């Protein structure tokens, strides 16, 4: 990062860091990464963009990696493609507490889906099993 900061392009370049979610080690008798519960669907996402983000800020909003393409296109000033899903995160980059009412959808395999809003997670598996968690009262599901 020091070398990047000293480079001639640092003033007009955004940095996007996307991580992987963690490995389940027996939680709810489940092993490996493949589940739709909170810990298995969360992953690091860091975006820094000149004249947009403020150092040492963090947003608690629920977003999706599907939002990366529209965000990068927006930051670069190029038109996004309508057939791609997701929404630009630029409003949250400028104001981490900005209104954001878009849930994140996670799919694992065929017909296993989870929808996560800031408060709720609803999951429906292909066998018809449904789960609903209120993260205000049950943050660990």
What is the structure about, briefly put?
The chain has 141 residues and is an alpha+beta fold. 16% of the residues lie in helices and 21% in strands.
Give the mean pLDDT.
Answer: 89
Q: What is the quaternary state of this protein?
A: single chain
Low-confidence blocks of residues = none
Order of strands side by side in the largest beta sheet? Answer: 5-6-7-8
Determine the N-to-C terminus distance: 37 Å
Q: Give, in order, the helices and strands.
A: HEEEHEHHEEEE
Number of helices: 4
Helix % is 10-25%
Count of distinct strands: 8
Shape: elongated
Radius of gyration: 17 Å
What structural category do the secondary elements indicate? alpha+beta
Number of domains: 1
SSE inventory with pairings:
Elements (H helix, E strand, L loop, with lengths): L1 H5 L8 E4 L5 E2 L5 E2 L5 H4 L3 E4 L19 H9 L13 H5 L9 E4 L5 E4 L3 E5 L5 E5 L7
Antiparallel strand pairs: 1-4, 2-3, 5-6, 6-7, 7-8
